[in-house]
């Protein structure tokens, strides 16, 4: 039962899964029962996530009905149907406003404390029961841009460790903080929405993961020339996405777009819808904690049958598929293979594979069980330095991608509008001159008049060339940047998992020194941190490889297109110049 | 003695030589004595010319001292040192304001009336006495942009004939109007500032010109394929203008720029200053009534030793000289030959030639005496139709030249600023991306990083190419347009002379029919109108020939430069693309 609440103080989200709220903002809270001091709900912008329970007050019906805030989202297309319209009047002054609201120390509790229920109460990635599989949920499932799964811009993950996250001052949290101080040991992270916890990284490091790993599930990290890397897929393939077609069902009541996928290793085309991609994406995100699964192209509420949108989405899916099929781990995993190979006609087989994927036990913490690291363990100091270097790198790359994207976007816009206009104005002026010259009936002027007129046409054509060009060269660059910006948004979480594991190692070492932990237990933590580190570094290595491959290919494509463009202009001008030969 | 006056009514100039004045505008009048109902003076914008005496009132000292108008030009750089500062208060209401001021009928007087003193009281083109020849009057003589010599924008010369020009209502003018009505005959134009009168066209048509024409002075109009044309110069030549140098005299007290001219028919370089060009221009304008002498490049009060200005003026002089030396009549005339061939060292010879040119009797009306028309007289109806067609043509060409000039000017500005900026922003963003990539120390990324960095440099260079390009291709187009806009501004006057002659023919025919004129007199008018028509059509034919030649050459040059430009860009991009081969 959704409730309305009012924020008493500003709260700035610092961790994935949290949302920022402003003092006096009207919020929707999904349950009056807080989860360890946190409420889950939606802020007035429609962002879903956690905020401290003590920062808000629940609005009772009588209070809510007297409040009205125009700044509150009242639009009909709210992603959440249960967000009430209307809101809170900005003139209202909270009676108990406290400046410098005291923040609690980081709470923690010892191993003996009962572990929190994993994922309980947190919005799950699309499970899509078999029953609603045929419903048109193309644009109603919400995984791709779910808060907390890294869908936003690059998060600043500095200080995302347990020492700095903000918690509520609820009595329970304070109680835990007290407890942590009195019994220091390898602590469990209180914030169940920390990626380290959510991903299963913590559970794995602490030795709580268990599952039966089949030989076929084994994922090998090998020591390559530049460090740990994923073992290559021995059967590499690619996958074509053909022009999407509009399909209807229920006698035309429902329409959807179907994409024909043809993997090179089967040559059997299968038809897939956006919702299938979305479902697959959710499975992969859930299953692979330290692998960057690129975002699938954005959803769009309106105009999803418009040609431009379909073409754009298809291009996005091609990029996505290109990444998927060239990733040594993702390309081989069962759920992806099921997606690529199961006939669209055989509904039973599809549902079977779907159910199997949704019940897959080797997800999250258990995924790490499937990893087989190189024989020699890594030097954690070196690992830390590499991870830190990568962190700096991703920040810089993200900044530069953002800048390049803005520049390229503006450059495209200028070419489509300004450049085109300038060239066409020149063309028009030449045309007008030739028309004036035609007033003179001297026969010796006729050739020149025609040549100038042709020159005018040439410049008008060149104006068109400028307007058409961005779709050929700048758009692909923007597509590439979008894919990589998606990756870069994933890395803070991935790094967070590895850093969490490393913290556990350090804590365990300290505890061993203090005689609070036995060596075997610490060695286990070490070994498991090594596995996480190997996987993380292998993924980073893979990222660099595909980055170099993709950017090289795209820059070459861009320059080739640019060269062809200027050659086309030159050709047009040469044609115009020839007209003067006999003038 | 200059006097101040106030305009009582608006007056819009309709003829060259007149200036417009606004009601209440404070004017400077050079003499209280009107010239046939006109005052000569300067309006508040500093424009010099004629306005009707009855439209203004002279301000006596006491009245002037009480008036103060801020909108009056009080800047110190007025071209006329005797324009008093201060002015007229806009709040002042003229006591005798008359709406719909009655305009007098066009006055005229018969042949028996005393002819007006030619040019008396009207500003003369630079004569430059020998005494002041050595003065530094580069930028103080005022021929090139003298009002009434066609220096302004294209004049609308519709209705510029005697039937519509505006005259004053002074008693003298009214008296003449009465006189005209009582003795109708081939009328003399009252407005001594009409081009037809000024040029000597009227005097020639009426048979009043007389002079001794030497054989060497004969100018032949021949019947060519397309109508009358100037006989070709049998000894064609061109003239180089070398890089101007700064010279000093009076021990460095005075500086000037000297241009080295080298005509191909003598190979003897001579040094000439801007004032010499200015003097020559004045001689040619005075001498040739129906020949379009292009304007010399504009004067500039400040910065005349700056490189940009010198280079621009030199280009303008090259265009000017190019036109001069390819004109069959101008290229052969004595004063131009003197200018081109007289040694700059031989001051005596120079002064002799200069004096001779200034005393040349075959100027204005007498110039027509030197013209030898083709044997068969022209059909005046056909001439009129050709002239009208040309009039329409020049209007259209002027409009289109104006538009092209504005477009090209804007296009150049965009390339220098906007285009350059866009390309350089793209270049900069690539550079930033390559710098981010350099954070990754993977050896396999190094080649790509360098290639992207090079691509960034390439786009910065291309931005520079864009900024540099207009001086190579658009500037020459603008120079060409400026030259032709100058020609187009000359043609209204030229056409006016021919039309004036044709009107005289029509009047004489009517008078013959009415028995008021004998046939011999009318035939003389016919013959002389034929000469003016032949010269005008020959000049128009020449204009079309050089127009086709110049625009063809310039368009070819423009396109060649453009092609080279886009090839240069392509080359730079190809260079960048190659960097990826080993990346």
From TrEMBL, chains A, B:
Domain SH3: 1-61
Region (Disordered): 84-185
Keyword field contains Signal: no
GO cellular component assignments: cytoplasmic vesicle membrane; plasma membrane
Residue ranges, compositional bias (Acidic residues): 129-139
Keyword Cell membrane: no
Molecular functions (GO terms): phosphatidylinositol binding
Membrane-protein topology: Peripheral membrane protein
Protein name: Sorting nexin
């Amino acid at each position: 039962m959704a409730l309305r609440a009012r924020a008493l103080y500003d709260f700035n989200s610092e961790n994935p899964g949290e949302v920022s709220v402003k003092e006096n903002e009207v919020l929707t809270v999904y349950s009056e029962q807080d989860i360890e001091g946190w409420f889950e709900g939606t802020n007035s912008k429609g962002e879903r996530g956690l905020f401290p329970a003590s920062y808000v007050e629940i609005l009772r019906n009588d209070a809510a009905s007297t409040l009205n805030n125009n700044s509150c989202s009242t639009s009909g297309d709210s992603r959440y149907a249960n967000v009430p319209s209307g809101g809170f009047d900005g003139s209202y002054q909270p009676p108990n406003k406290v400046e410098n609201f005291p923040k609690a120390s980081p709470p923690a509790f010892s191993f003996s404390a009962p572990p929190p229920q994993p994922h309980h109460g947190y919005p799950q990635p699309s499970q899509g029961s078999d029953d609603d599989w045929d419903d048109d949920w193309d644009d109603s499932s919400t995984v791709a841009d779910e808060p907390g799964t890294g869908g936003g811009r690059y998060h600043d993950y500095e200080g995302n460790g347990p020492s700095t996250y903000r918690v509520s001052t609820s009595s329970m949290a304070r109680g835990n903080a007290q407890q942590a101080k009195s019994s220091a040991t390898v602590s469990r992270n209180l914030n169940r929405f920390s990626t380290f916890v959510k991903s299963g990284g913590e559970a794995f490091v602490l030795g709580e993961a268990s599952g039966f790993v089949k030989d076929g599930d084994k994922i090998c990290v090998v020591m390559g020339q530049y460090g740990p890397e994923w073992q290559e897929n021995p059967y590499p393939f690619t996958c074509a996405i053909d022009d999407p077609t509009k399909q209807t069902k229920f006698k035309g009541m429902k329409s959807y777009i179907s994409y024909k996928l043809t993997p090179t290793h089967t040559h059997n085309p299968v038809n897939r819808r956006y919702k299938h991609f979305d479902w697959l994406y959710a499975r992969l995100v859930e299953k692979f904690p330290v692998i960057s699964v690129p975002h699938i192209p954005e959803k769009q509420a309106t105009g999803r049958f418009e040609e431009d949108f379909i073409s754009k989405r298809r291009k996005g899916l091609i990029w996505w598929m290109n990444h998927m099929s060239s990733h040594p781990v993702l390309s081989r995993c069962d759920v992806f293979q099921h997606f690529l190979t199961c006939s669209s006609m055989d509904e039973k087989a599809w549902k079977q594979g779907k159910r199997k994927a949704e019940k897959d036990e080797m997800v999250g913490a258990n995924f790490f069980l499937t990893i087989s690291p190189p024989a020699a363990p890594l030097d954690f100091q070196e690992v830390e330095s590499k991870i830190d270097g990568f962190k700096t790198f991703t920040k810089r790359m993200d900044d530069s991608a953002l800048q390049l994207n803005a520049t390229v976007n503006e450059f495209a816009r200028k070419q489509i509008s300004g450049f085109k206009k300038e060239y066409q104005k020149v063309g028009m002026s030449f045309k007008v001159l030739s028309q004036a010259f035609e007033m003179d009936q001297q026969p010796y002027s006729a050739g020149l008049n025609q040549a100038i007129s042709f020159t005018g046409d040439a410049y008008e054509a060149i104006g068109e060339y400028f307007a058409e060009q961005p779709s050929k060269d700048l758009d692909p660059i923007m597509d590439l940047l979008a894919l990589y910006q998606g990756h870069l948004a994933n890395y803070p979480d991935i790094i967070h998992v590895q850093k969490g594991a490393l913290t556990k190692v350090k804590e365990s070492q300290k505890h061993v020194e203090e005689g609070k932990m036995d060596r075997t237990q610490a060695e286990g933590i070490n070994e498991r941190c090594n596995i996480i580190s190997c996987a993380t570094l292998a993924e980073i290595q893979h990222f660099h490889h595909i980055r170099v491959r993709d950017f090289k290919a795209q820059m070459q494509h861009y320059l080739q297109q640019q060269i062809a463009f200027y050659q086309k202009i030159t050709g047009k001008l040469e044609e115009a110049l020839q007209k003067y030969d006999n003038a």
